[in-house]
Amino acid sequence: MRTTPGTGRAAPTNRRITSYDVARAAGVSRSAVSLVLNGRADGVISAENQHAVRAAAKRLGYRPNRVARSLRDRRTHLLGVVTDVTSGPYGGGMITGATIRAAESDHLLLVMDARGRQQDEEAIGALLARQVDGLIIAPGSLCEWRPGEAFGQVPGILLDATDPDGRATCVVSDEVGGGHAATRLLLDAGHRDIALLTGLPAQVATGRRLAGHELAMSEVGGACRVITCGWDIDDGLREGARLLDGPDRPTGIVCANDRVAAGVMLAAARAGVDVPGELSVVGYDDDPSIAAQLDLSTIGLPHRAMGERAVELLLAAIAGQRLEPGELLVPAPVVERGSVRAR
Amino acid sequence: MRTTPGTGRAAPTNRRITSYDVARAAGVSRSAVSLVLNGRADGVISAENQHAVRAAAKRLGYRPNRVARSLRDRRTHLLGVVTDVTSGPYGGGMITGATIRAAESDHLLLVMDARGRQQDEEAIGALLARQVDGLIIAPGSLCEWRPGEAFGQVPGILLDATDPDGRATCVVSDEVGGGHAATRLLLDAGHRDIALLTGLPAQVATGRRLAGHELAMSEVGGACRVITCGWDIDDGLREGARLLDGPDRPTGIVCANDRVAAGVMLAAARAGVDVPGELSVVGYDDDPSIAAQLDLSTIGLPHRAMGERAVELLLAAIAGQRLEPGELLVPAPVVERGSVRAR
DNA sequence: CTGTTAGCGCATTCAC
DNA sequence: GTGAATGCGCTAACAG
């Protein structure tokens, strides 16, 4: 019986409704309440009492205490997320996708913002202490992340990151496919004289996109100029100008990202070269505040789908399925706009 | 004693370390472990035993189970967040700020993505079932949000949203101050012939920025053209062109946001009007992929500070402090770049 | 068909 | 100084 008042502890300011309150109101036992509310009552509890329980629960506004249930089940239905993506302008879509997919299975996201490997370890520790059922690590922008001590205590996934040792399960955008698709956009429009402005080699994405690009070129038996450029509008402006003023101007340029593409388009405008009339341009990222504005054909980053896939994998692993090491590639959507013209 | 094996329940796949394990390893009682690890041991537990406990805890990798603690304390140290901001490109900073400030006080964010009033109520219910200590509602982009039934069960704050009934505590950007500052940027540079391109009146921000603008103009005893424009680059392009081709061209234009400003600058370029030489332009939002690129002077959105303030207020409320109804205005940072020139 | 019991892991009395 | 007992709210097993 819990009729005795709390012993010596500070009295709760405003006690919440518990299953005991519902049981008393419905004139049944707590087990009956649990049975009814969890759908295990049929053939066990009389229809009459079932109704009484439901009515009482509703009237009282009873909400089963998930903390108590978690303690008992040794399962919190909580997914821990360590991320840096909320800071940046993009990538929030991963959180959105993850949240939504998780909610569909009655799971919630416990989010920690962290930057730097040291803090990551602490963050994971904090999440583990909260008894999260699984872990998602999303440091942002396809970086490398080497799992440490704490990672591995529960099922865990790397999101938009790769494990250099190849032991972890990673969900990443298909950069090779994206690079291939970007180039294919130009190839399929009949272009053969193509230049590629790549990002910085330090970034994982750069090499992969380049590989996809080369694959596409090899499919048509062609070759093209590859220029290490950078990620910013200035870089695109500089290299774009050089390309357009040079001896043999390409008819199409594949850019490292949309900012670079914007720079190229600006250079073209200055040089009096019409896009897409005389020059076709392809970007990457589908940057929300650039690509649509510039009517730029580009390759999107499937952030939301990545978040969804990560949660799906994680939930399966929590359910006991084995987590395969390696990378799960999420296809990058091709966004066709008006900056490419057939020739 | 818990020496008897679990009764009939599915055995935990990999039992975690509990305080009992630590106690046994250190040769003391569980209470001793609790006392030591919570800093209540001095003068109660021998230094020798204290050391033994700490050593054992470290060696075993003991992490106190926060779920159990939450159940006992009736306090989860969890802050529920209902938001839509992760979807959009901006506003993620609010989550970042909130996460960081919360973490400083050993609190974590439980995030639910929701759009639409109906789902909000459900989301809050789910969060309440998780026994969150407080609630933050951040529907995004300064909209109106009327608290429903569930809101109010625990301390709650509206973030980047206002309560039309004025009952809730809201944390919002100081839009009046921002509008004032934007105009002041031009006024202080000596401009008197100023045009204002406002956003759509349906948005709360529009009216407030306008009020700030008018306040600034009244300070110098001036008046100016106010033109309802919109939020996009096209709108800026259209209205900018009209203004520049018109009879008396202004020397400065305050824009609804950075996208509109970009449109205006584009119109200026087309009309052969030099910015800032012949025309000064001010934007709003400090849009990360526009403002810096265009060297645009603008007013920032203090997203991160807002998230921080919301958590601070919430934690204070959870600690027992009264939550004052009304709006807490977070100052909007003035970002001076090169698009304004003195005349 | 119902009510009682036990225990999830923790912190806190209160006897020893 | 320490250890046994208690209860947070819940559910599953078991005895009535």
Automatic annotation (TrEMBL), chains A, B:
Gene3D superfamilies: 3.40.50.2300, lambda repressor-like DNA-binding domains. The keyword Transcription applies. Keywords: DNA-binding, Repressor, Transcription, Transcription regulation. GO terms for molecular function: DNA-binding transcription factor activity; transcription cis-regulatory region binding. It comes from the Bacteria. It holds the Pfam family LacI. This is Small molecule-binding regulator domain protein. It comes from Propionibacterium acidifaciens F0233. The lineage of its organism: Bacteria, Bacillati, Actinomycetota, Actinomycetes, Propionibacteriales.
